[in-house]
Amino acid sequence: MSVEDAHLQQDLARRYGLSQLHPAVSDVATLTTRVKMLEEQLGRPLVIERGPWSASPDGAVLYSDDFTHDVMLTVNGDFGSYEDRKAYADEIARRLNNFQAQQQGAKNEDS
Known about the structure:
Elements: H1 3-16, H2 23-42, E1 53-55, E2 61-64, E3 72-74, H3 82-110
Antiparallel strand pairs: 1-2, 2-3
Helix pairs in contact: 1-2
């Protein structure tokens, strides 16, 4: 274990009031290290968004039910009617949810 990993485990144990030897501390430290490696490879922060996405009744807002971020995206543009905006917002939500489902399917195939 590197010095950096040991410090991370110490910090996690202190933060959650657990022993450094607790399996959860080790698991969180490992995941944190993996996320940092992914961010370095990507050259940007890793954002995990689970959704699901839905549109407001009038189509003016897209919502994510992932409580990590509580995202609300405004849908604004040149729509002929509220019904057109609602159809557009519903389609964007469907695509975002479909993308998430495809990502999860690909992950399950790799296992």
